[in-house]
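Work Package 3 (structural annotation) set out to generate three-dimensional models for the target panel prioritized at the project kickoff. During this period the team completed the workflow that converts sequence records into C-alpha cells, so that structures can be stored uniformly alongside our sequence database. As a representative example, we reproduce one entry of 102 residues exactly as it appears in the project archive.
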Amino acid sequence: MLIFFKSPDDKKLMLVWPEDFSACSLEEVIKSQTENRAWSKELRRRTDVLVNSRLAKNISQDDYLADRKLAHEESAECRRRAGILDTQIILHSARPLPRERE
C-alpha cells in the first residue's frame, strides 16, 4: 500500500513504498499500480503549473530550476516504481504449469 502525504503547499509526495511485493496479492499490486499512476498524473499537473508560473513570471528562475530538479527526481522515481509494479504484475499473473500425473 502506498501512502501519500500532502504538504502545506499542496504538493503530493509519495512517502511509503514497499520494496518487497512478495507477500502482496495481485490485487494489492494492481492497487499500488493505480496509486502510482495517480501520482504520475499529479506530477504532470504540478509540472504544468510550474511551467505556467514561470511563463507568467510568478516565480524566479532560481525557484523554477530548483522545482524542476525536484520534479525530475520525483518523475524518475515514479517511472522506476512503475517498472517494478509491471514486473510484479507479470510475476503474480504467471501460473505454474500443472504437473503431469504418473
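The longest helix spans residues 61-93.
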